[in-house]
């Protein structure tokens, strides 16, 4: 006899997470040098008591205008472009594996967040976005008017 109530859909969350990872993770090397391919950089998302933190590997950004960060309806979208620094003639190129072009990644955040006070830093090819959690609606007692 099981003491835990049966939840028929509890495993679906893991399946959804794996499918999301499968269809949104870029495949390094497979599309290297392909023009027009929209890459999906890898991202880690975790939460603390006060904020949600997303770290994303995006090597090759040169200036802050190369990346855009949007938060809408609890979805974080990181997009931008990586430009080739040294243009080498194609007949001289022996191997081209470093990505250049447009990239985009959207993830649903694990908690309600506030778009106020978001901080983003880029260091050593890693973009870190710190998003404060939204304050839960505080419990409030309502006075009842008696007539």
From TrEMBL:
<dbReference type="Pfam" id="PF00011">
    <property type="entry name" value="HSP20"/>
</dbReference>
<dbReference type="InterPro" id="IPR008978">
    <property type="entry name" value="HSP20-like_chaperone"/>
</dbReference>
<comment type="similarity">
    <text>Belongs to the small heat shock protein (HSP20) family.</text>
</comment>
<dbReference type="InterPro" id="IPR007052">
    <property type="entry name" value="CS_dom"/>
</dbReference>
<feature type="domain" description="CS">
    <location>
        <begin position="38"/>
        <end position="145"/>
    </location>
</feature>
<feature type="domain" description="SHSP">
    <location>
        <begin position="34"/>
        <end position="147"/>
    </location>
</feature>
<dbReference type="InterPro" id="IPR031107">
    <property type="entry name" value="Small_HSP"/>
</dbReference>
<dbReference type="InterPro" id="IPR002068">
    <property type="entry name" value="A-crystallin/Hsp20_dom"/>
</dbReference>
<protein>
    <submittedName>
        <fullName>Heat-shock protein Hsp20</fullName>
    </submittedName>
</protein>
